Amino acid sequence: MKRLEDIVSLCKRRGFIFQGSEVYGGMAGTWDYGPLGDILKRKLMNEWWNYFVEKRDDIYGIDSAILMNPKTWEASGHTTTFSDPLVECKECKSRFRADKIADGISESVTTEEFLKTHTKCPVCGKENWGPIRKFNMMFSTRVGAVLPDDDAEMTKNTTTYLRPETAQGIFSNYKNIIDTIYPDIPFGIAQQGKAFRNEISPRDFILRDRECTQMEIEYFIKPETWEEEFEKIRLLQHDFLENIIKLNPEDITEYEVPENDRAHYSKRTIDFMFNYPNGEEELMGLAYRTDFDLRNIEKASGKSMEYRDKKTGDNFVPHIIEPSIGVERLFLAVLSTAYTEDEINGEKRIVLKLPENLAPYRFCVSPLLKNKPELVEKAKEVYEKLREKYVNVTWDDSGNIGKRYRKQDEIGTFECVVIDFDTLEDNTVTIRNRDTTKQTRVKIEEL
Ligand SMILES: [Zn+2]
After folding, report:
1. 251-270, pLDDT tens digit by residue?
2. d(CA 115, CA 105)
3. For residue 106, how far is its CA from the centre of ligand 1 (angstroms)?
4. Where in the chain is the domain with CATH 3.40.50.800?
5. Separation of 209 CA from ligand 1 center, angstroms?
6. 151 pLDDT higher than 90
7. What's the CA gap between 351 and 341, in Å, rounded?
8. 35-49 helix and 327-338 helix, angle to the nearest 10 degrees
9. Sheet order of strands, 252-256 included
């Protein structure tokens, strides 16, 4: 049985993930990626980019600004509807997201509906609630030379937000892309980047944090082809998650979001759920958004968002299919899958069985003994050679060989290479496999 707290503990102990601002007592909902977490995160992002952008002819990458003209968030509806139901306990003043502390209610819960659930305050245990208030989750900030005591109009005119999603940076560049790249339809625009949400109660480690990294594609299609294009993109998500990232297919289930829970403009939405140690949670979303986003931009900007079909000469506003995934959610899915406790020759160990393409290090090189200069010198030579070829190679000469193996197992190093006295004689080394712990002897030039 895998437990989230064991994974959190491994992440901290081995330098994958630390609490944000830990030295100052931490900051809720923020996390810092250490040396190993950074390598794994980059690998996940690179695999996604490689699969969806670089290996395809029809998807283009962009990197848009985090700060955007506030009209963006008016047009998209975020300033009025991007909110959670906030409820305050009148006894102890604690604030909660109503739909997270009561069963059977949705995000659009009313005060009356909430009171009927007779929920007790999770902090003080009393039942004395204020009204449900809408809490907007966007982080606001002010742009330019403004002062705290500037008047209301000045404040309003200089307020913008840290983007709550990368998608709007894509929609707002759609016109730039069609005017410069002239893509054939269907085509996609992809972006990876930070997004910010002021969660009322961040929880579940990196699953619900206030700052996350999104990977999104907006795929522009002819309206009448939406069903077949949706199906193609749905299958691509499975192929990526199961064959590139190597998640177990049985841990992934599709939840077909029913009409009354979908955004009003979406004709179909599927949540890809993952079986995390703490239970099933959303891993990614796939939504058919119709022409909602481009029509909103047309209304707010007064500019036409029509696409001109090169073959037929028809003008139309494309419809959009959006696959969206958070890197942190993928990160935790990968770690949950890889985390294993097993027993080798009666000795318990923790091992991260990461696939070869995601292991932070492909090899760890070490001399059998640290105090024998001839072994250290030979080992350094092998280390340099492997690093040139594989890049992700680490060096370890600490402690005894057993301790090194345990450490490398915990960080998921795929294979350990050990240089001993035989190496000096016949140029062979011991290779020890992480998952089987089997050791074999191979020639250096065959590595
Ligand atoms: Zn209370």
Report:
1. 999 999 999 888 888 999 99
2. 11
3. 21
4. 361-446
5. 23
6. no
7. 6
8. 110
9. 59-61, 187-196, 211-221, 319-326, 279-290, 268-276, 252-256
Q: What global pTM score does this model have? A: 0.94
Residue 126 Cα to ligand 1 middle (Å): 6
93 CA → ligand 1 middle, Å: 6
Distance 298 CA to ligand 1 centre (A): 47
For the record, the structure tokens of 114 come out as: 């909430």
Q: What are phi and psi of 415, to 5 degrees?
A: -145, 145
Cα(121) to centroid(ligand 1), Å: 5
Class of the CATH domain delimited by 361-446: alpha beta
Long-range pairs for 7-10 at CB < 8 Å and ≥24 separation? Answer: 7/205, 7/277, 7/332, 7/335, 7/336, 7/339, 8/205, 10/339, 10/350, 10/352, 10/410
Cα–ligand 1 centroid distance for 129 (angstroms): 8
Instruction: Say how many C-beta atoms besides its own lie within 10 A of residue 199's C-beta.
Output: 19
How far apart are the CA of 130 and the centre of ligand 1, in A?
Answer: 11
Residue 107 Cα to ligand 1 middle (Å): 21
Helix ranges, 185-326 (H): 226-239, 292-301
Cα(113) to ligand 1 centroid in Å equals 19
pLDDT tens for residues 366-416? 999 999 999 999 999 999 999 999 999 999 999 899 999 999 999 999 999
**4-66+163-336 CATH fold:** BirA Bifunctional Protein; domain 2 (3.30.930)
Residue 43 DSSP one-character state: H
> Which residues in the chain are classed under CATH 3.30.930.10?
4-66+163-336
Residue 154: the pLDDT is 85
From the CA of 128, how far away is ligand 1's center (Å)? 8
Cα-Cα end-to-end distance for the chain: 36
Calculate how far, in angstroms, residue 164's C-alpha sits from the geometric centre of ligand 1: 30
